[in-house]
DNA sequence: CGTTTTTGACCAGCGC
DNA sequence: GCGCTGGTCAAAAACG
């Protein structure tokens, strides 16, 4: 996250859900605007039953959790600023882009070690996409977002997605909205998990390929490396569940990995570093888009969370019961 | 029957 | 030149 968040009231990532505004508490650096309270504490005359007490305890817990998250966001924002200034320096010195140069789509291992050797921190950039994916590196916007490119004139269209999946899910399926046909699988030297090779099958002439491999460090993370640029639009949403399996999945049910809704600090760092990718007007446009989608995803995540729903329902029903005329 | 996946073989780049 | 490795091909299998 970056300071942009703090300046955008509509997209504030303040996570204090259902917590009464605490005037005495210093607001976290990242969340500056007045918190939106879903369950207003002063909604009704005070008459606390056991459910309300329990709910309050739950809200306190969530409050603490949110405070933690806010602190993490603050730390991430600080890191972002540091990286951004570093990036500005790098941008001012084009000679530092020594890894640039075109990479032909196939049989080019010479300059294509992106996948195997960890890139230097500044090049290891990740962005969360609305699908719960983490977009890394530069240049490629698989979802059609137009402005995530930087130094595209000197870099191949290579990007990475980091997808959190269930460890028990052995499939190498990354849901990104495109149709892919698997054409190979290989066990690589530095990772016991096999790497799967896919080609875009949505358009026959589409040159895009992707490699999917479980992270050696965290096998709940799938790393998808995209090469090339789609020469067609994104398939309609109805087809987005068929990724990897691309239509027929040979009898297997469509595997849809869980979105990255809970990121380890490691991945959050990546996400924060992502903001370094773009600067200037492109950065503004990209940031707005990304953050909007991030906020949407956050809302989606909350609404999908059964415990959150349960707490919300409990709170609302409790209030309604209190308001009920049958109550004496 | 058509399409996709699997998987062993093959090819090319790279380091020694 | 040789071996290692990653990437691709293509025949066979699997599936609806």
TrEMBL record:
Region annotated Disordered sits at 89-133, 229-271
**Which InterPro entries does the record associate with it?**
WRKY_dom, WRKY_plant
Signal peptide start-end:
none
One Gene Ontology term, aspect cellular component = nucleus
The processes (GO biological process) annotated in the record are: response to other organism
Instruction: Please provide the record's keywords in A-Z order.
Output: Coiled coil, DNA-binding, Nucleus, Transcription, Transcription regulation
Q: What are the residue boundaries of the WRKY domain, all occurrences included?
A: 173-235
Q: Which SMART domains match?
A: WRKY
Q: Where is the composition biased (Low complexity)?
A: 94-105
UniProt KW DNA-binding keyword:
yes
Q: Which family does it belong to?
A: Belongs to the WRKY group II-a family.
UniProt-recorded name of the protein:
WRKY domain-containing protein
């Amino acid at each position: 996250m970056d300071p942009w968040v703090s300046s955008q009231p509509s997209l504030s990532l303040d996570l204090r859900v259902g917590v009464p505004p605490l005037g005495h508490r210093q607001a976290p650096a990242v969340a500056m605007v007045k918190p939106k309270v879903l369950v207003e504490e002063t909604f009704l005359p005070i008459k606390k039953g056991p459910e309300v007490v329990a709910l309050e305890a739950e809200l306190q817990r969530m409050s603490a959790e949110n405070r933690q998250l806010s602190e993490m966001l603050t730390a991430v924002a600080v890191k972002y600023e540091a990286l951004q200034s570093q990036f500005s320096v790098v941008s001012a010195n084009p000679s530092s882009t020594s890894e640039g140069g075109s990479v032909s789509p196939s049989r080019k291992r010479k300059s294509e070690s992106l996948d195997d050797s960890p890139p230097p921190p500044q090049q290891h950039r990740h962005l969360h996409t609305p699908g719960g994916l983490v977009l890394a590196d530069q240049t490629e916007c698989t979802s059609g977002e137009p402005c995530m490119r930087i130094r595209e004139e000197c870099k191949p269209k290579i990007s990475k997605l980091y997808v959190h999946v269930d460890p028990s899910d052995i499939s190498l399926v990354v849901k990104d909205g495109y149709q892919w046909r698997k054409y190979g699988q290989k066990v690589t030297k530095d990772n016991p998990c096999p790497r799967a090779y896919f080609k875009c099958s949505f358009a026959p002439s589409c040159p895009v390929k992707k490699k999917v491999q479980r992270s050696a460090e965290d096998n709940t993370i799938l790393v998808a490396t995209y090469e090339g640029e789609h020469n067609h639009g994104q398939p309609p949403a109805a087809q987005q569940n068929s990724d990897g399996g691309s239509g027929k999945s040979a009898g297997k049910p469509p595997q849809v990995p869980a979105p990255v809704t809970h990121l380890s600090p490691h991945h959050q760092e990546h996400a924060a570093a992502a903001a370094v990718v773009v600067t200037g007007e492109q950065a503004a446009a990209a940031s707005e888009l990304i953050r909007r989608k991030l906020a949407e995803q956050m809302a989606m995540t909350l609404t999908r969370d059964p415990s959150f729903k349960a707490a919300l329902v409990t709170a609302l029903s409790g209030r309604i019961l209190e308001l009920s005329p049958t109550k004496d």
